[in-house]
Design a protein that fits this description.
Largest sheet: 2 strands, antiparallel
Radius of gyration: 16 Å
Order of helices and strands: HHHEEHHHEEHHH
Strand content: 5-15%
Number of helices: 9
Mean pLDDT: 84
Length: about 180
């Protein structure tokens, strides 16, 4: 099957899908992404097979230092069926005091994907903190597209999330 006829290609645009497929081998080697995205999972939180959220990145650090920081197993907490890791005991305690404030929007799936009615893998290195909330994006072009109309896209993502959070990514792409 050519990438132009693939169902995901039709859903996100042939050129974008082709670029993603073409660059996938490079991304696997050079990205921080663990490629743990499960297209058959109905979970509302994007986790690895070991239930680790944010690919082990500390959700509090995005707010305090403004960048992704890997957490360590020693400082872990469970929230909404996902295990979050933290870079320090202080960040762990901060999260435990208010997990809803620090857990990523849309379960750590791509916010622009949610705006389009899809659950796409969120890359912890491509993010935005706005109004005190962390949002992840699948790739830089998704963030750039989101930023063309942040208020409108956020509203669409929030509206769609209620409809898609318990569906598998596979279901949302229709295959």
């Amino acid at each position: 099957m050519s990438y132009k006829s693939h169902p995901i290609s039709r859903a996100v645009g042939g050129a974008v899908f082709g670029a993603i497929v073409s660059l996938a081998p490079l991304a696997i080697v050079g990205s921080s992404s663990a490629w743990a995205y499960d297209i058959t999972s109905k979970a509302p939180v994007n986790v690895t097979s070991a239930r680790i959220a944010l690919q082990s990145h500390d959700p509090v650090a995005y707010h305090t230092v403004g960048k992704p920081v890997l957490g360590i197993e020693k400082f872990s907490a469970e929230h909404d069926g996902a295990i979050y890791r933290f870079s320090s005991e202080a960040n762990l305690k901060t999260f435990q005091a208010n997990p809803a404030k620090y857990a990523p929007l849309h379960g750590g799936f791509c916010q622009q994907g949610a705006a389009g009615g899809r659950k796409l893998d969120g890359d912890p290195a491509i993010f935005r903190v706005a109004d005190g909330k962390l949002a992840l994006f699948s790739y830089k072009a998704a963030l750039d597209g989101f930023l063309k109309d942040p208020a409108g896209n956020a509203a669409k993502a929030n509206d769609n999330w209620a409809k898609i959070q318990d569906k598998t990514p596979r279901e949302l792409f229709g295959f």
